[in-house]
């Protein structure tokens, strides 16, 4: 049976044991009329039995599925080692792969006449191992499921506190779920960290952080002369900063003015139309913005360049940056509006009562009071601009030019991560690992920005609450 | 006492000074206001321009031009001998001969090749299917409608709009097309294949069915995983968690995760889920897991807010009647918080639906013609399909890309509208 089928089987057994648990509880109580004799409700006995049956079995199934492949592989490698001389053992992963493909062919009754007897023998051994593993998995899962139910059924007595036991299990489950967020963070840190360490053992950290040459494509073939590639990430950092700066130059003023106008001047009717407009801007997928940037905005900007006799490249930083700015406008405006409305009304009313005009109140009273919240919003927006991927992948260039000129083509950290990892890749080349090192930089930067922003916002909230 | 007329009141020096500056201040006020209004209008223009641009580019994709070929199913050109299987005949040859018969004046080899290029590469299969469906047409000449090549299709659509030829079609080809149009051999039909066929290298054959199915499978995985996990985590943090360092850490964590760039989740998926756990590349299962990790923070934050909004009196009443904490939560608090939780979930799912970057990392960018049928089949999703098509140099893909975007935006609109509806119902209670 496959894992999916087994999981379904376990669920069916669990449903059945729910019924069994209820029956058992009623029998222990001495009939339908006497269920008051029980400490807990019959359905709680049922649920407890079902949990006892399902949880251990599913857990076992998960662990088994995670480790089965590697155990079978290592057993197979052992067997292959016994029959092969040492020279052939260097390409072990390739050999193992060939055996697996062969085994599949044998099962599908395809032509295997090209294979040697030894290979066929290995393939048969592999098939046998797999069959054994499947049988063992099925047997153990079912034994665990049924066994746990049997143990619990013997435990059910009139004085057995099913509810307390059940609730312990439930809160344990809830606790585990809340830990997933933590696990995700740990997973992210571990994956980018380990690969980055592997990368930095091939390329020195100083070269990565301070080098001005980026051409990872050279490193594709290991046997190439000078095949180490160049991994100086400065052009990428500069490109990222340039595009983010262009984006923020558009998003901050427009976003702020929209926030101010909507929260201070706009009539309820305008607000009720403008809010969905902002939501549309915020909800458009980034791949759509990327399409818009590459196929509409970039040609427009280039045509404009021709008009004023300025050579603007097709993949200019300007196009990507402007469209990214549009994407960020709703982000800036909604967070700044929150900050503006959180300022106590007394400040505003006081200022207006003293005879200040509305705009004077906004500029000299509201805005300074809301500045921490607005700075927090801007930091979050910057972190989003730095991490944005699709717009730059589609509209910015691949060549790593070290320039601050917005009408030239630059590349960014995220563009390079995508271009290095898109498609198939061998996992231990410096080229692939470089993507993880870039990922680490990106993660650290955005994390620092987020933490700073959250700190500023929180501190500000404490002031007025 | 008589009221004093303010006009005749004695003025102090300060008042004078203020009044002098008043006009300037009011002007400034108006300018400031105008700036704000301009920003809002700018936003509206952006939205309209974006939607208009995409819609106008997308419209051609919903129609496709077909051309009528009088196919001469002669046994000679089919190289048919009695007893042959109809599926194995020489249809390419037959199609070419039939095309040359329509244009007898074309003689040069290069011209003939160019002429063949006007018809979709799929045309020979179309005439094959026709003969298999009507075996009695063997030996006769039958009109069969086939698709035109994508360049011709774009040309025909642009000519309608612009009235001028395109680079990809030269004078000679334009003349042939004109002849066909004049003979009534070209027809514009609704392109239902856009929804029923899968990806193809030929723009006139490409459709979104494969990507839509992939999206559907991925979204199922995401929903099945993220909803229970997210709600359970939110319930624990709101109702059960003691206030200590551990829960503080989880809370900070969730807030940070919500702001981690999505591409980082792709790196996690590649390094851990694919390379460590050995799950298949390009599979909706892996895509769904990655998107789950990405949307969990959104769902948890929204669910917590919704659970927090349930009045404490509900909990106190339930507990006062002897319910345990778990019973109170699951029978009273959760049902009341459900509309808010569902709203948060829909918003999270909408985010996941439009997400592209992490899926590029886990190999969902492959060119896949088959419609995926299980959670472990190689597949692609709508946003990635858009990305792939946008990258294609053929002009015919421009309209397809925009049309795919429209389909995606349509789904997003539906999801957001239902979230808004739920929220409104929740608020009115």
UniProtKB/TrEMBL annotation, chain A:
Pfam families: BPD_transp_1, DUF3708. GO terms for biological process: phosphate ion transport. The chain crosses the membrane at residues 6-26, 47-67, 135-153, 173-194, 236-260, 280-301, 313-332, 365-386, 433-454. It is found in: Cell inner membrane; Cell membrane. CDD domains: TM_PBP2. It is a multi-pass membrane protein. Part of the binding-protein-dependent transport system for phosphate; probably responsible for the translocation of the substrate across the membrane. PANTHER family: PHOSPHATE TRANSPORT SYSTEM PERMEASE, PHOSPHATE TRANSPORT SYSTEM PERMEASE PROTEIN. This is Phosphate transport system permease protein. It comes from Opacimonas viscosa.
Automatic annotation (TrEMBL), chain B:
Pfam families: BPD_transp_1, DUF3333. Its main location: membrane. It is a multi-pass membrane protein. PROSITE patterns: ABC_TM1. InterPro entries: DUF3333, MetI-like, MetI-like_sf, Phosphate_PstA. Residues 212-416 form the ABC transmembrane type-1 domain. One of its GO terms (cellular component) is plasma membrane. One of its GO terms (biological process) is phosphate ion transmembrane transport. Belongs to the binding-protein-dependent transport system permease family. CysTW subfamily. It comes from the Bacteria. GO terms for molecular function: phosphate transmembrane transporter activity. The keyword Membrane applies. Gene3D superfamilies: MetI-like. The chain crosses the membrane at residues 31-52, 216-237, 257-278, 285-307, 327-347, 402-422. It is found in: Cell inner membrane; Cell membrane. Signal peptide: none annotated. This is Phosphate transport system permease protein PstA. The keyword Transmembrane helix applies. Keywords: Cell membrane, Membrane, Transmembrane, Transmembrane helix, Transport.
